[in-house]
Design goal:
D-Maltodextrin-Binding Protein, domain 2, 20 helices, globular, alpha/beta, five-stranded mixed β-sheet, 12% strand
Length: 442
């Protein structure tokens, strides 16, 4: 009798384990280092908050590598449920007909709450279709800001509490810093030729980057970033380089730029607001100041909002177990919680994606205790976005950015003027747009 009772108990336990097996939701992402650890922590806490679903994060390399891997996996029928795609890949994802399960539909089908008004407007505006439907889940959104070395400013005889507001002021301050010997470089930029030095420069000055509302109006767009003001700006960076005021850290994300700031070689560094945690951790022996991106006062006296960077989470069609999508929706609801978003934002420097998360940070006194931590939010929320400042959305933008980098380097080497380089970048970029348009016309 005892033997039969033990067997019955074991069978019940086995049955319970089988019935409670969590549905796995695979999440491919592009975050390494400290950000990757924090991302994994977010997934782990969601998994611990319930027992029906298990989100499994998988690091797939850089943003471009992750996007390429996801496309290849979809074609092979081995795609993840969720893939993190940087903002540059938005146009490509929107054109991938049949591959994407739009987030607004995911949430509706799963019966999960979905209030678009709760998200920061600049964030949702970038990732929405023409009807205002959000296509991907906002997650890690950023915008560029200025970091500066207060100690170097003081050594150069500058007020450490006053950051340059304009590019002209930055050039003047940078020269004073270099001439005084306080540092060997005035400033450096991440994404000097693209996200920071062209896309955001154009947006802040309210200059068009492309036709059809910077690509938001469809694929038949053409680049117009080769305007006289953008060309003059590039020529200005060349002059600043010749004067030893600006130092180029390399193409793309410019891995060399931030270390030049950490080592106190350069007094100012402009890069993603999401670099905040890294900057604070790596800036040993000096005090860091935070400020908005400078504006060009020869073009405007009222700078517009900066534009978005970072990435969102796209849901991919084709999961054999449809219960996976219920798990995706539950996870996205969890990610939207004010406490989850506030923690992510405050740790990383990424923007809080919801108004509630921002308000929670205010009530917690986070911004008061951490001066400069709300600069990115205020900058991207500044004024009313225009067609020129709501962002740039083009197919194959990763490839186009590479050729823009090449043209910028031709300017720095003295082979081309800013106008010649931007004209060539626009010409080659338009050819790539036509290829993208042809490939996605059906």
């Amino acid at each position: 009798m005892m033997k039969k009772l033990v067997l019955t108990a074991a069978a019940v336990a086995l049955s319970a384990t089988t019935s409670l097996a969590a549905t796995e939701v695979t999440w491919w992402h592009a975050m390494g280092g400290e950000l990757g650890k924090k991302l994994e922590e977010v997934a782990q806490k969601f998994n611990e908050s319930q027992s029906e679903y298990k989100v499994v994060p998988v690091f797939k390399g850089t943003y471009p590598e992750t996007l390429t891997a996801a496309i290849a996996a979809f074609r092979a029928g081995q795609q993840p449920a969720i893939v993190q795609v940087f903002e540059v890949g938005t146009g490509t994802m929107m054109a991938a007909k049949g591959a994407v399960y739009p987030v607004y539909q995911v949430m509706k089908d799963a019966g999960e709450p979905w209030d678009t008004k709760g998200f920061l407007a600049p964030v949702t505006g970038y990732y929405s279709d023409a009807s205002g439907n959000i296509l991907s889940m906002p997650f890690n959104s950023s915008t560029p800001i200025m970091y500066y070395n207060k100690d170097v400013f003081k050594k150069a005889g500058l007020d450490p509490e006053v950051a340059p507001k304009t590019w002209a002021e930055l050039a003047t301050m940078g020269k004073k810093i270099v001439d005084s010997g306080a540092a060997t470089c005035g400033f450096t930029l991440s994404y000097a030729a693209t996200w920071v030095g062209l896309e955001n420069y154009s947006a802040i000055q309210d200059l068009p980057f492309g036709t059809l509302q910077n690509g938001f109006g469809g694929t038949k767009t053409e680049f117009t970033f080769n305007g006289p003001n953008q060309a003059k700006f590039w020529d200005g960076l060349k002059k600043a380089q010749d004067d030893k005021v600006f130092k180029y850290g390399g193409p793309g994300g410019a891995a060399e730029s931030a270390p030049m700031f950490y080592s106190q070689q350069c007094a100012v560094y402009m890069g993603s607001s999401a670099s905040r945690a890294g900057v604070i951790n790596n800036a040993k022996g000096f005090q860091v100041g935070f400020a908005p991106m400078p504006y060009d006062d020869t073009v405007t006296k009222e700078p517009k909002n900066s534009i978005i960077g970072g990435a969102t989470l796209w849901t991919l069609n084709g999961q054999k177990d449809k219960n996976v999508y219920k798990g995706v929706a539950k996870f996205f609801t969890y990610l939207s919680k004010p406490e989850v978003q506030a923690d992510w934002h405050q740790f990383t420097g990424y923007l809080p994606i919801t108004n509630a998360a921002y308000e929670l940070g205010q009530s917690q006194g986070y911004y008061a205790k951490n001066p400069g931590s709300d600069i990115a939010i205020k900058q991207i929320m500044r004024g009313t976005p225009s067609d020129n400042s709501k962002g740039v959305r083009f197919g194959n933008l990763t490839q186009i950015r590479d050729l823009v980098d090449q043209q910028f380097e031709a300017v720095l080497s003295g082979k081309k003027t800013g106008q010649q380089a931007l004209d060539e970048a626009a010409k080659q970029g338009n050819a790539i747009l036509r290829e993208f348009e042809a490939a996605n016309s059906n």
